[in-house]
């Protein structure tokens, strides 16, 4: 039973462990397992682990892009990374253009597991996908970043909306990444969507304190999804260097495509400064830079890592999932 008005966001790439999701459930919250980046087998194993524990949980899936990337732009970007490859002693992979994150296979796993909620990021699937998930017993939640996206999701027949502001950390869920700069704060966007659509709204973005949670609830959100604060949870799989950078609290955040080809808010570092003109191209750029990022982490170089962080990251503190939920609770 979800009692808290705070949800623990899915954080792909390692932070969202089954232990984090389970700890959220034990504390009366709803935690989301991140399905992105994983193979279907890996995701299936984590889903099975959570089901065996009896914990209520959500599952997040990346919806593949409709439009193909600009291959020539990707080739130019790959060439521009030659110095990074030399710096870290790794070989750049060839462009990988056929990855849809095994979306169909992961939907099939979600239908079989029937988590409490399935959230969708980066786009909207066909109505048949939504209906299959609902028929299995899951509520379907679309992540949106504008009123236009919210209306499209409503027409598709989803059950709820996660309304993500530009102040959120990590990948933006924007379905229109061209020119996205993440300027609209979550509170403003939540109020606009609540006034225009009948669907329940979950606010996301710009949360570092209980007062930030209260502001989104006051704007009309039924609940608030929080990610950055839980990067510092004991149960999260966040890299130690990433934790240290968050705790230092001395960097600006920027919206960058440099690491993955999709807009994401991160701590500013050398990599974001030296690659400001990265083209669109998720997940092709993610595959191009993944070895570079892993090597930077292995060599202790925080300047070459993706350090996802929301605009209010300097307010967050470490602790158990239960302790962080308690600190964020505005009641």
From TrEMBL:
The keyword Oxidoreductase applies. It catalyses: 3 propionate 3-nitronate + 3 O2 + H2O = 3 3-oxopropanoate + 2 nitrate + nitrite + H2O2 + 3 H(+). Its cofactor is FMN. One of its GO terms (molecular function) is monooxygenase activity. SUPFAM superfamilies: Inosine monophosphate dehydrogenase (IMPDH) (SSF51412). Belongs to the nitronate monooxygenase family. NMO class I subfamily. PANTHER family: NITRONATE MONOOXYGENASE-RELATED. This is Propionate 3-nitronate monooxygenase.
